[in-house]
Amino acid sequence: MATTADRxxxxxxxxxxxxxxxxxxxxxxxxxxxxxxxxxxxxxAKVLERIEKLESxxxxxxxxxxxxxxxxxxxxxxxxxxxxTHKGSLWTAVKATNKAPDEAASDWQxxxxxxxx
Length: 117
Description:
Helices cover 47% and strands 17% of the residues. By secondary structure, the protein is an alpha+beta fold. The radius of gyration is 24 Å and the shape is elongated.
């Protein structure tokens, strides 16, 4: 995954390339501004789309909240935000799953550890 610095460097490179294209077309005094506007507006649109998606996901989670489902049961499917008791501990599903917390650690987050026996 690209770092923020890598993405920024890529944007600067694309702006420079676009500025050269505009300059080659005879728009020398406006080249950098046009190039920057074109590249940055496309990036801003992507960021706004991502923000909208995250806000809608957050709203769904906020509306639903956490739901305690009792003791984990093999026959049930669990959704993100479902909480179960399994082997004395409380677990919260971080994504949809039908596996036990001790079988699929990436599907569950330990919320409260049970007492050691």
